[in-house]
Amino acid sequence: MKQIILLLGLILSVVYSEAQDNNRNSIKGFYKVYYQEKNSETDSYNVLIKNIIDYKDEIKFSMKISNKTGDFIVCKSSENKVIIDNTKLEVIGKTKTIKPSGDKSITIKCERGSINRQASFNILLDGLYKIKQKPKSIKVADFEIPMTKKDFKFGKVHCNVSIPVRKTQKMIVKIELRNDGDEYIIIHPSRVGVEMPDGKTYASKNSEEEVLLAPHKTKKITLKWDRMPKGGLNDMQKVDMGINFNDVFYYAEITKLEATKIKIEWDKQLTIKKQ
Known about the structure:
Layout: H1 2-25, E1 33-35, E2 38-41, E3 45-54, E4 58-67, E5 72-76, E6 81-84, E7 87-92, E8 95-98, E9 103-111, E10 120-125, E11 128-137, E12 143-145, E13 151-154, E14 157-167, E15 170-179, E16 185-187, E17 193-195, E18 201-203, E19 211-213, E20 218-226, E21 241-244, E22 249-256, E23 260-265, H2 268-274
Antiparallel strand pairs: 1-3, 2-3, 3-4, 4-9, 5-8, 5-11, 6-7, 6-10, 7-9, 10-23, 11-22, 12-21, 13-14, 14-15, 15-20, 16-19, 16-22, 17-18, 17-21
């Protein structure tokens, strides 16, 4: 019996000690509390956490992710967490795609509720995924112009085609793709070619080298051609043409990146200055 009483006393003392520590580290008396920005680096990405503000019962911050790889990175913001006083809190934020060697900023919000403000807390990045292109492209049949139909399909992707501009020396083709499948698809618009009567294939003049089409999402791409050689032989307003999709579409594999925990600390001077 004495051992049980001693054990209960020890447990209560530990709980009380932790509560005392949390109260000492809590921040009170401010309408807004500001925290220091923090940078964290991994082999795959850099992340900068800045503009970190704790309002009355909500934490808000900006997260800039810089992709260091040659693959796409997708950030599913809702899978990240804010950890205060050992409690994991859900966050609100959009899913963003970061292009190879590109960067993207995301605004994150978190309801703190009844948990006391602390002099430090952690952000757990647990929603980052690398999207890597598979080696073999998807075979897609050529599309004829003048159009005999306005759509085509490959796998579980439905494509609607429109031609808003078709002149002698200029043509614009727009394709809306709807992915009803569960796989990511990487698209290379600049590889789309138009087969002309002179027997040659001319690549589309696109600024975007790669586009990522997520599962159960839609994406629009615009293809452009102009200044064809050989005059009337390649008059885009009059001749028959074929749109070629060789090495344009690829399925991709998704790999979850290892979670990263980032410690955020109170900026006391800025907090006092901003009151």
